[in-house]
UniProtKB/TrEMBL annotation:
<dbReference type="Pfam" id="PF01565">
    <property type="entry name" value="FAD_binding_4"/>
</dbReference>
<dbReference type="InterPro" id="IPR016171">
    <property type="entry name" value="Vanillyl_alc_oxidase_C-sub2"/>
</dbReference>
<keyword id="KW-0274">FAD</keyword>
<dbReference type="GO" id="GO:0008720">
    <property type="term" value="F:D-lactate dehydrogenase (NAD+) activity"/>
</dbReference>
<keyword id="KW-0809">Transit peptide</keyword>
<dbReference type="InterPro" id="IPR017896">
    <property type="entry name" value="4Fe4S_Fe-S-bd"/>
</dbReference>
<keyword id="KW-0408">Iron</keyword>
<dbReference type="GO" id="GO:0071949">
    <property type="term" value="F:FAD binding"/>
</dbReference>
<dbReference type="InterPro" id="IPR036318">
    <property type="entry name" value="FAD-bd_PCMH-like_sf"/>
</dbReference>
<dbReference type="InterPro" id="IPR017900">
    <property type="entry name" value="4Fe4S_Fe_S_CS"/>
</dbReference>
<keyword id="KW-0560">Oxidoreductase</keyword>
<dbReference type="InterPro" id="IPR016167">
    <property type="entry name" value="FAD-bd_PCMH_sub1"/>
</dbReference>
<keyword id="KW-0285">Flavoprotein</keyword>
<dbReference type="InterPro" id="IPR006094">
    <property type="entry name" value="Oxid_FAD_bind_N"/>
</dbReference>
<dbReference type="InterPro" id="IPR004113">
    <property type="entry name" value="FAD-bd_oxidored_4_C"/>
</dbReference>
<dbReference type="Pfam" id="PF13183">
    <property type="entry name" value="Fer4_8"/>
</dbReference>
<dbReference type="InterPro" id="IPR016164">
    <property type="entry name" value="FAD-linked_Oxase-like_C"/>
</dbReference>
């Protein structure tokens, strides 16, 4: 039976048609029903139902990654263990199937693309254990997460790709990724100490086991024999040995690491190295023990502006020898383009000569003396350099960040500026470092020849250059142009400079056809021998790394159909995914966009389109917290939540909009009813006891949710807080600010004993000599966010205008600031209200100063004295504070009132999103999964005495999901200064 007020997802329709209307990469109708039944049944029996993702929506959302290619998986699976992985490989061998591994989905060359079984190695392969100067880590952990844990021990993992927030250790090892500071001798190949490997045969190898070689010889005698034979052949060939040593003396991820046969003496030692950089074609790295490096504690950056590329190239090795941490080369077109787009760009760069170049120089030290010595060494190197502007070493964290934004920001800029339907490809080549200046010039000429941006930059110390292209693969002439360009690029890199066609991004399908050209016949055939020895049935990642299809790099291009304007420029990089509240439950922002693009590709009324509609409503729209943190992580600031709110508005009916407007006009009655309901709920719990009371309330709301809508009626399965107490009495005379208690604090009370939040803020403000006044009649006024987030446009408009009129009156025409005690409400007022106002109303709104309670509390600190500080305090900086740039003030207030205030590792948006976490408790569980791990790690360092944030519903959600009683930071400040 249909629920009474369930939204109809089909009302969102298909996106407006763009330039391209025929999409060769549209999902086939045959997969409208999802995974073929026999395959689905087999895998559910093998791995369990929860591990098999078989809906059409699942196949589509995993089909796209950060690269330009797109294949259609038949099924997606999430194995939980090494045993599961071995069973899966055995199943493929027995049934003639193949599989491809995928973790963070940030690879750029098709190495995570598969058309049969796609294996999610991120969800369940998690775990980090620091072991002195080494770390034991599983492949699903992100690099940023790993380094956050290592930082507590003063260590770091050397590879540092710019995609650290989304790139997983599995991907970094499989691609042998580099980065801005990672030297060749510290890359993954050289850092891996031990590993647990799962071979295509299902054999599991623990390289730390002293008997590993004996076990392997017993389990895989033919493999051992062939590995030793290959080693003997390579070692005996002096010319080949020299060739391998030279090729791997610079960055090179194009092809297999044949030098593993030179560096490893036994089959197990060979395999440990061989699987690094193999892109999942030779086996699975289920766990790795890695060497780590000391973490610099202080750093500085400066722009080294030079008149020519040659001069820049000349000084890079000198600066590295002097101890530089990073030397990033940026050519004149990049610097000119940055002016007007990045705050850190010098306006004078707009007039730079074509040959002018810059080095973004970073120096880092273990302490201040170490840093000063390195700055002095760099200045000495550059003392006679033909600098076009003086050196200025920047120490401020904001200035350093702005400088690095220019280095990494061209990706975002081109992403925003590219034409409809075009891809954004990041290419990656390596030249001998001594020739990088000359090579960069040649590369710019080649890009200009094919009308691609001449925006060359990169890790000059390693000869590693990056550039971008924006081809429209929907047009054959552009595919032909791309093909011609790639062929000339191969000639430039290999024939002229003896470089590497891929430095750190991996081979994938993109450069697989050119392995023979780069390596020569002997090395190329040895790579095939290795593949056939380990994977004779070709189970793993067909056409990745090694292929017999010489045009594979020109097949299966991904289209970029037009979708809603707010999201249409998405490049599908996945940077948004680690912060998305629903990432562990349903879909991520990238996947919401990927699915929407598939809706655009499908013909109207297709079975696959209808299948997507069926699941998109809950997975994408309902489960979006619409908190906007994805826009903070996105290189081009896309807020996918805005698109979801647009869809919620499109789903609404005249009936639901009328109901919402009536609620808005009678909000005081809603508040009263809510407090009455909470009081009644409290009475039920008091009579039946907390546990049984919560169960009864949960059962009752569950019945209503099943009849009406799970997206309108909240769950009370974990109980509700008490009703709010009456607001404290205040006086207008002498008030320093007007206090507008948010309706969530007028409805929901404090979970524990003690004064309410309004009472607390009034008291601590008075103590600081800055009294607050709460006007009469605040009941019935709301920021409008509840209506905005659900897509009730009329109600949002009504409440926005009412809010303006009330604030204008209370503030005495903007004379006094307005203090709001819930950060989501503060943010909602600032972001949402202006767009609902007329020009005259907006002029009044702009005269009203709105302050969040966190801002206000920070202004109180100079007038307060701490008498009883808290001990260790865990701080949750909610998403609204992040948007308003108030995390710093939050930490200031918490640190003022506590001996140790810290943000737990893994803290992102809690997923409460007003009432959304109450509507969908599974969203809370998903959003706080990593933070719960971080809190457990923090507890290992000693007891945590308090848990604070700055938004009542967030605090309720955090308490529900973590079991810790979170409260507003104002309580902490009040208790510490009494």
């Amino acid at each position: 039976m249909a629920k009474l007020l369930t939204p109809d997802t089909k009302k969102i329709g298909q996106p407006e048609q763009g330039i391209q209307q025929d999409f060769p990469d549209k999902f086939p109708e045959a997969l409208a029903g999802g995974t073929p039944v026999e395959l689905k049944t087999d895998l559910e029996n093998l791995l369990g139902k929860d591990a098999v993702h078989s809906r059409a929506l699942d196949l589509v959302r995993f089909a796209s990654d950060a690269g330009p290619y797109r294949l259609f998986p038949q099924v997606v699976v999430s194995p939980r263990s090494v045993e599961d992985m071995a069973s899966l490989l055995a199943y493929c061998a027995a049934n003639g199937r193949h599989l491809t591994y995928r973790s963070g989905g940030s690879s750029l060359n098709g190495q995570c693309q598969g058309d049969d079984i796609l294996v999610d190695t991120k969800t369940h392969f998690r775990g980090i254990q620091v072991e002195g100067e080494r770390v034991r880590v599983r492949p699903g952990e992100t690099l940023a997460g790993l380094n956050a844990v290592l930082a507590r021990h003063g260590r770091r993992f050397a590879p540092d790709p710019a995609s650290a927030v989304v790139a997983t250790i599995g991907g970094i090892l499989s691609n042998n990724s580099g980065g801005m500071r990672c030297t060749v001798d510290q890359d993954s190949y050289h850092s891996i100490v031990d590993a647990t490997l799962v071979l295509p045969s299902g054999t599991v190898v623990d390289t730390a086991d002293p008997d590993a070689d004996a076990r392997l010889a017993a389990d895989e005698p033919e493999l051992v024999k062939e590995l030793l034979a290959i080693r003997e052949e390579i070692v005996a060939d002096e010319e080949l040995v020299a060739h391998l040593r030279r090729k791997f003396s610079i960055r090179n991820t194009n092809g297999l690491r044949l030098d593993a046969f030179l560096d490893g003496d036994t089959p197990v030692e060979i395999l440990r190295r061989l699987l690094v950089g193999a892109e999942g074609t030779l086996g699975f790295i289920a766990e790795a023990v890695l060497d780590t490096q000391p973490l610099p504690q202080v750093k500085a950056v400066t722009w080294v502006m030079l008149p020519t590329l040659a001069a820049a190239a000349e000084y890079v090795p000198k600066l590295m020898d002097a101890g530089a941490a990073a030397c990033e080369l940026l050519v004149s077109p990049v610097l000119r383009e940055s002016v007007g787009h990045f705050d850190g760009a010098d306006a004078g760069w707009a007039e730079l000569d074509d040959d002018a170049s810059a080095i973004l120089l970073e120096v880092a030290g273990l302490d201040e003396d170490d840093l000063q010595q390195k700055i002095a060494a760099a200045e000495a190197v550059l003392a006679e350099a033909p600098l076009t502007s003086p050196l200025r070493f920047m120490r401020d964290a904001t200035e350093i960040d702005l400088a690095w934004q220019i280095r990494g920001g061209l990706f975002a800029l081109l992403g925003k500026q590219r034409q409809e339907g075009t891809a954004l490809i990041t290419e990656d080549v390596c030249f001998p470092p001594a020739l990088v200046g000359e090579a960069a010039k040649d590369l710019m000429k080649l890009l200009a020849k094919y009308d691609y941006p001449e925006s060359v930059m990169g890790h000059a110390a390693f000869g590693n250059l990056h550039f971008f292209m924006t081809p429209a693969f929907g047009r054959q002439e552009e595919i032909d142009q791309y093909d011609a360009f790639i062929n000339e690029l191969v000639e430039l890199v290999i024939d002229k400079y003896s470089g590497s066609l891929k430095a750190e991004h991996g081979t994938g399908m993109n450069m697989a056809p050119f392995l023979l050209r780069e390596w020569g016949e002997k090395a190329y055939q040895l790579m095939w021998r290795v593949k056939e020895a380990l994977d004779p049935q070709g189970i793993l990642a067909p056409d990745v790394k090694l292929t017999r299809q010489q045009d594979i790099h020109l097949q299966n291009f991904k289209s970029f159909p037009r979708i809603e304007e707010v999201a249409t420029h998405c490049v599908e990089c996945g940077f948004c995914e680690p912060v998305c509240p629903s990432r562990n439950a349903t879909v991520t922002p990238r996947q919401r966009i990927v699915l929407r693009r598939e809706m655009a590709r499908q013909p109207a009324g297709s079975a696959l389109l209808n299948a997507l509609y069926d699941d998109y409503g809950y997975d994408a729209i309902d489960m979006c917290a619409a908190d906007g943190t994805c826009s903070i992580s996105c290189p081009i600031s896309i807020d996918t939540g805005v698109m979801m709110k647009q869809f919620r508005a499109a789903q609404q009916t005249e009936q639901t909009n009328d109901v919402a407007l009536k609620l808005a006009k009678n909000w005081a009655a809603v508040e009263k009813a809510a407090r009455g309901g909470l009081t009644a709920a409290g009475a039920v719990q008091k009579v039946l006891g907390p546990s049984l009371g919560s169960s009864v309330l949960g059962a009752l709301t569950g019945v209503v949710r099943s009849v009406v809508s799970e997206d309108l009626v909240p769950s009370a399965q974990d109980g509700l807080p008490p009703a709010a107490s009456a607001l404290p009495k205040t006086v207008r005379a002498g008030a320093a600010a007007i206090y507008f208690p948010a309706c969530i604090n007028r409805m929901f009370g404090r979970s524990g004993e003690g004064p309410s939040l309004p009472e607390t803020l009034v008291a601590v403000s008075a103590r600081a000599g800055k009294p607050l006044h709460i006007p009469g009649g605040v009941s019935g006024t709301c920021c409008g966010t509840p209506f905005s987030s659900k897509g009730f446009r009329d109600a949002k408009h009504y409440m926005s205008v009412k809010l303006l009129e009330d604030l204008w009156l209370w503030s005495e025409a903007g004379t006094l600031p307005i203090v709001v005690d819930a950060s989501s409400c503060t943010h909602g007022m600032i972001e949402n209200v202006p767009g609902e106002l007329t020009e005259e109303q907006l002029s009044r709104w702009q005269q009203i100063q709105i302050m969040d309670a966190v801002q206000w509390a920070e202004t109180l600190l100079p007038s307060l004295s701490v008498t009883q500080p808290a001990g260790r305090v865990a701080v949750h900086p909610n998403c609204s504070l992040q948007h308003m740039d108030l995390v710093g003030p939050l930490m200031q207030v918490a640190s003022f009132a506590a001996e140790d205030a810290f943000v737990p590792l893994g803290a992102t948006c809690c997923g409460t999103a007003g009432d959304r976490g109450l509507l969908h408790p599974e969203l809370l569980e998903s959003a706080t999964a990593d933070e719960r791990v971080g809190l457990a790690r923090a507890a290992q360092d000693g007891p945590v005495d308090a848990f604070v944030s700055a938004n009542r519903t967030c605090e309720m959600g955090l308490e529900q999901s973590t079991g810790h009683a979170y409260e507003h930071v104002a309580y902490l400040l009040d208790e510490a200064t009494r």
